[in-house]
Amino acid sequence: MSIERIARKRGAGWRVRWREGGRNRARTFDRKADAAAFEAEVRRRQRAGDLAALDAGQETLQEFAEEWWRLYARPNLAPITLASYAAVWDAHVLPRLGGLRLREIDPQTVARLRAELTSAGVGNASVRRVMVILQGILERAVEWRRLPTNPARAVRKPPQRRERAVRPLTPLQVERLRAQLLASGRTRDAVLVSVLAYAGLRPSEALALTWGHLRERTILVERGVVLGQLKTTKTGRTRTVRLLAPLAADLREWRIARGRPPDDALIFPGANGSAWSDDAWRYWRRRIYTPAARASGLEPVPRPYDLRHSFVSLLLAEGANVVEIARQAGHSPAVTLSTYAHLFDEAQGAERRPAEEQIRNARQTLRRQRRTHFVPEGQLGLFPEEDKTPANLEEPTRGFEPRTPSLRVKCSTS
Fold first, then answer.
1. What is the pLDDT of residue 231?
2. What's the CA dihedral at 79, 84, 85, 89 to 10 degrees?
3. Which residue of 20, 98, 197, 267 could cross-link 62, Cys pair, CB 3.0 to 4.6 Å?
4. Is 411 part of a structural domain of the chain?
């Protein structure tokens, strides 16, 4: 190691030379004092075996993100999470910070990013997601010795809270939606609505059910459909849910209409009997579910996911405690309390009403207005929408390869 005086365009300078990793390295300084201080730092790092950190953080955030995506994200994250991360990266992080070197990113830089997003009208939930993703990427930079500390950790994230209270559908509203689907000859879709509203399953869990998951008094929930693939549930846990008698009757009639398929067959198969693709789900929600919901008087139209809140409401009306509701909904007790606190308050002191009785009463009310019944598949043609749904719609399927120029092009294995 040596310090030598050199000639520069704007006068003399000082160069520190050292050898690291089998290579000769050098760095120049304007002042001799700075060169001497750096030489002392090099000697200290040599003794500590940490010389590589001297040049760490030279790559841009975009370059490091591509490495992070290839080595960490793709092997460890679910496809739907990858799609979400890629969309956030493209929209908010890449345009603002992608060109900065890692060592140039400090807490002030991250705080400025948060302020810019808020000023641009980005919601708190999205800003929080940006911060979480950026912190996760930079955490790997610390682990891989590109940064000494994670600058995103020092910046507060927007609070995580629900922006609007859940509004469960009443059994009568659910039955009106089902009646609208049945009147259109969509028995499958009416039964799917029943499963969402009367068993509290997430849509991904309902679409992964096979006939073998139905027990005498319970439904076994152990899988979900994620972008056309059968995966574990969102929480990674298996649970059982009460099989209410009216729902059991709907499923029993549906199995008969389907010709009594075997236990390993999907209850709600997609095209060719396989699991639903992401495109097929969007098509169903936009072209089948939403028109039926509007025709039944539901405005604003609730998401299919929101139907599961109706099941929680039914359990609350029976007097179920928070632990039992959390277990059946697939939540932790803490999340259940924060999500349904207003419903717990409303149920305090109210008359207990069995869930099955509430559903039967709603059906009897509608039966006076309209007679509905199940008809064999051959008479109604229960699956015209499957036959007409193209295999590849114009909307791209997100998640398998995210639509991000810096992560998709250089990290794709296809």
1. 79
2. 140
3. 98
4. no
